[in-house]
Amino acid sequence: MPPPMSVPTWVWIAALAALLALILLDLVVVDRKPHEITVSEATKWVTFYIACAVAFGIGVWIFGGSEHAAGFATGYITEYSLSVDNLFIFMIIMSSFSVPALHQHRVLLIGIVLALIMRGVFIGVGAQAVQNFSWIFWLFGGILIYTAWKFAFNQQENEEYDPNGGLVRLVRKLFPVTDEYHGSKLTIKRDGRRWMTPMFIVIVAIGGADLVFAVDSIPAIFGITQDAFLVFAANAFALMGLRQLYFLLGGLVQKLVYLTYGLAAILAFIGAKLVLHALHENELPFINGGQHVTWVPEINNWVSLGVIVTVLGVTTVASLLKARRDERAGIAPKAAPGHPPAAPAAQAEEAGNAPH
Description:
- The protein is an all-alpha fold.
- It has one domain (9-329).
- The chain has ten helices and two strands.
- The chain has helices at residues 9-30, 39-64, 66-96, 104-132, 136-152, 166-174, 198-222, 228-249, 259-281, 301-329; strands at 187-190, 193-196.
- The protein has a two-stranded antiparallel sheet.
- Strand 1 (187-190) and strand 2 (193-196) form a beta hairpin.
- The radius of gyration is 21 Å and the shape is globular.
């Protein structure tokens, strides 16, 4: 792996300012008047965010070199593909809490901003760990290989996501929660007390779910690049584009029946890459007489990019071909392995009752 880039403080500030500007743009342009996001609108925004990521990658190539640009591209594609997995959970949360369609975009935006903040902390800790503790590569590699095994052999098949999980139950214990939505308000004042609305609970559930996914995705991207700046940028672009992808894909996500196997292959590949890198970085007394291992190959970012794009392309095409064959045969679509069926997002208008 190439050494991290030397990124001046002003570049970090400029990047964070640009990210904040994108969030404000989204709030002003898209959320100025809450409405149900159409496929056409979602397509335009997905294209816009992908174009922003491409422009950033070109900038990395110009100022940081081709190897770092390949690292960013590989990390971005990996994070985006892993984030698609989140869409299953987002659909379940939206449906379970009967989120009005015209407020779903704001829920996702706020939830993902919270996820960005939490992931930023994870990335900061991870960057320090990989710089100071070479054994961390063994740990990250093990996490990814174990997760790949769970994905590939459907160990998550019966693990249904509970939108009223521990974090949500804790919020309900700490604060009173209203039964009904109050537009897009997160809290209201009633009888001299501050009450949370179901909108607040949904945002907590979205942010908490994404934080769980970060346990897998953060080690994955550190297996591609150790540059904290590129790791954060790849996560930011992937998460910002994820909101619009939610509205663009919709039911199409259910057709990606082989996606889980593709993600398993990607995680296993990156996990193996980390193990190979660990063999180079660690002095093991039982290997090579306690010296660094030099006879195992290192996988560069261009090879990683090729493998990941190929795996995603093959699994996506295979999934869509199977979905077409099933439709012709009159077979109802099933959820992808490892995921509970995702019900369509609620199309309620201004208000709906949240489950307790």
